[in-house]
């Protein structure tokens, strides 16, 4: 069995953004500034809340991040949709990491509950997705539950994140 990496640096993540990591037509991450991960600290087919795999990542915050200037003037906060996108990015990365083929696309999320904000004074955002199911076939699909922490405080949770990897027909 091939040994896969269990963590990735920013430079390694960028190879995924450029489509080099998993090959053409397979899952890839967006390029900056839409890339919402600075490093993947752990990825595994085992563990997590449902014992079906997990991924953890981090994103460094500083007041110069692009979204603080426009969301909102005089009241800067990271848009919640960017945290959700980070969870989808990680869920799609997991499909590629498993060796599943197809272009990754976010499909849906079942439920989101916000309980805090990410402001310019936060140092690190930590993300986690615990996988519930991975379906392999004509459509490769991963389903998981995720959370977002700002300096170790949970600011939102998302249930039933779904990302598919669609093969060209």
TrEMBL record:
Major site of localization recorded for this protein: cytoplasm
GO biological process: fatty acid biosynthetic process
Pathway involvement of the protein, from the record: Lipid metabolism; fatty acid biosynthesis
Protein family: Belongs to the thioester dehydratase family. FabA subfamily.
Entry GO MF terms: (3R)-hydroxyacyl-[acyl-carrier-protein] dehydratase activity; isomerase activity
Keywords: Cytoplasm, Fatty acid biosynthesis, Fatty acid metabolism, Isomerase, Lipid biosynthesis, Lipid metabolism, Lyase
Catalytic activity: a (3R)-hydroxyacyl-[ACP] = a (2E)-enoyl-[ACP] + H2O
Gene3D superfamilies according to UniProt: Hotdog Thioesterase
SUPFAM superfamilies per record: Thioesterase/thiol ester dehydrase-isomerase
Organism lineage string: Bacteria, Pseudomonadati, Pseudomonadota, Alphaproteobacteria, Hyphomicrobiales
Gene Ontology cellular-component terms listed: cytoplasm
Primary enzyme class: lyase
Documented EC number(s): 4.2.1.59
Protein's name in the database: 3-hydroxyacyl-[acyl-carrier-protein] dehydratase FabA
Matching Pfam families: FabA
Assembly description: Homodimer.
Subcellular location: Cytoplasm
Superkingdom, natural source: Bacteria
